[in-house]
Amino acid sequence: MKYPIDVLPQAIVFDMDGTLVDSERLQLQCFMETTGKYGFDAREELYLQCIGATGAVARTILVDAYGAEFPLAEVLADWRVRYEELLASNALQLKAGARLMLEMATNHGIPCALATQTRRPLTEKKLRLTGVLDYFDTLVTGDEVRRGKPDPEHYLVAAERLGLAPAACWALEDSENGVRSALSAGCRVYQIPDLVPVSESVSHLGQTVLSSLVEVVAILERAINATTGSR
C-alpha cells in the first residue's frame, strides 16, 4: 500500500530490535558461537526463524530443531553472557536514519513510543547505550503485555498510553510478526526488513515496504512540509 504523503502522524511507534537498533546481527553472532560451543551445528536459518517471535516460540523452534538433548538452559545462559559482553564493548549501533527520525519527530512535537518483545531492563539498557532513551514518551515491553506479537496488544497499549487512536500512529517494523501486530491494531505501517527479507505471505498485507529508516525520514519530512506549507 502507498500511503498519502501529506498526512502527518500524531505519533510514531518504533519496534526496537532490527528496526531502531542494529541488534539482530549481534544476536546472530551470539547464537552461532554458543550453539557451536555446545557441539551443535550452528544453523543461521534457525535464528532467522526466531526473529520477531516471542521467547517461548523461539525456544520451541530451537528444541524442535535440535532435539530433546539440546541443552537449552545452558545455551541461553551463555548466549546472554556473550550478548552482554558485546553490549559492554559498544558494539550496538542505531540503524541508519534512526536518530534523525527521532530528532525530527521531537522537533515537530510528534510523540514517540517503543513496542518491543524485549523485557524492560534490557530495553532501557539498549536505549541508554545508543543514547535515545529520552526521545520516547512511553515504552511497551515484552514483560508488560500478556500476548506478544503478532497479537496487536503492543500497539494498542502504546496508542492508549499516548491517548491516541492506533490509526493516527505510524508503526515502524522489520519482522513479519511485528507487521501483523501493528496492522491488526490499525496503525499505518512501514516495514523496513533487516536480516529476513519480506516473504510473499506478508508482502501485500497493507504495509509499505522500504529499504531503510532514511526513506521514512524523507516521507515524514514531506508530510511536515505539506502540513506547514514549507518547501
Termini separation comes to 26 Å
Biggest sheet features: 6 strands, parallel
Radius of gyration: 18 Å
Shape: globular
Overall average residue pLDDT: 94
SSE pattern? EHHHHHEHEHEHEEH
- What is the number of beta strands? 6
Oligomer: single chain
Low-confidence stretches: none
What amount of the residues lies in strands? 5-15%
| Secondary structure tally, helices | 9
Report strand order across the widest sheet.
3-2-1-4-5-6
Structural class: alpha/beta
Helical percentage = 40-55%
Structural write-up:
This protein is α/β, with parallel strands linked by helices. Helices cover 46% and strands 10% of the residues. It is built from 9 helices and 6 strands. A 6-stranded parallel sheet has the order 3-2-1-4-5-6. α6 (120-129) links the parallel β2 and β3 (138-140). α2 packs antiparallel against α3 (55-66). The longest helix has 17 residues, at 72-88. It starts with 10 loop residues before the first strand and ends with a helix.
Mind sketching the topology for me?
Layout: E1 11-14, H1 24-37, H2 44-50, H3 55-66, H4 72-88, H5 98-107, E2 112-115, H6 120-129, E3 138-140, H7 153-162, E4 169-173, H8 176-185, E5 188-191, E6 208-209, H9 213-228
Parallel strand pairs: 1-2, 1-4, 2-3, 4-5, 5-6
Helix pairs in contact: 1-4, 2-3, 5-9
Task: For this entry, give a set of tags.
231 residues; alpha/beta; 9 helices; 46% helix; 10% strand
Summarize the structure.
With 231 residues, the chain is α/β, with parallel strands linked by helices. It has helices spanning 24-37, 44-50, 55-66, 72-88, 98-107, 120-129, 153-162, 176-185, 213-228; strands spanning 11-14, 112-115, 138-140, 169-173, 188-191, 208-209.
